[in-house]
Amino acid sequence: MPWPVKQKAYDTVVRLPALHGPLFKGRLASYHDLHGDLEPTAALDLLTRLQLPADTPHLAELRSVLAAGRRNHHCSPYAWDDAVRSSSD
């Protein structure tokens, strides 16, 4: 489903802090899914609006790949590995 179709639902969920974790996990799964296709700028904006612990697993990596304009893991298979290395430095 295209991002604009999901945008209203995301905007609603952002107002519900109890759903921030599940929303993050969904966006992370979408990045890695074979058919996943995030809108990098919008997805990064969404991540910045979520109240997540700083030590949330894979948060830094997802921010990094989205900031680099990556839509999904399959179009840029090495971007995630680069983000993991960068976050561990």
Tell me what the structure shows.
The chain is an all-alpha fold. It has a domain at 36-89. It has helices at residues 3-14, 20-32, 40-49, 59-67, 79-88. α3 (40-49) runs antiparallel to α4 (59-67) and α4 (59-67) crosses α5 (79-88). The longest helix has 13 residues, at 20-32. The chain is globular. It starts with a helix and ends with a helix.
User: By helix and strand content, what is the structural category?
Assistant: mainly alpha
Q: What is the alpha-carbon Rg in Å? A: 12 Å
Order of helices and strands: HHHHH
The major β-sheet equals: none
List the uncertain runs.
Answer: none
What is the beta-strand fraction? under 5%
For the termini, the CA-CA separation is: 36 Å
Strand elements, count: 0
Can you give the helix content as a percent range?
A: 55-70%
Shape type: globular
Q: If helices are DSSP runs of H or I spanning 4 or more residues, what is the number of helices?
A: 5
Notable traits:
89 residues, mainly alpha, 5 helices, globular
Compact summary:
The chain has 89 residues and is mainly α. It has helices at residues 3-14, 20-32, 40-49, 59-67, 79-88.
Give the SSE map.
Blueprint: H1 3-14, H2 20-32, H3 40-49, H4 59-67, H5 79-88
Helix pairs in contact: 3-4, 4-5
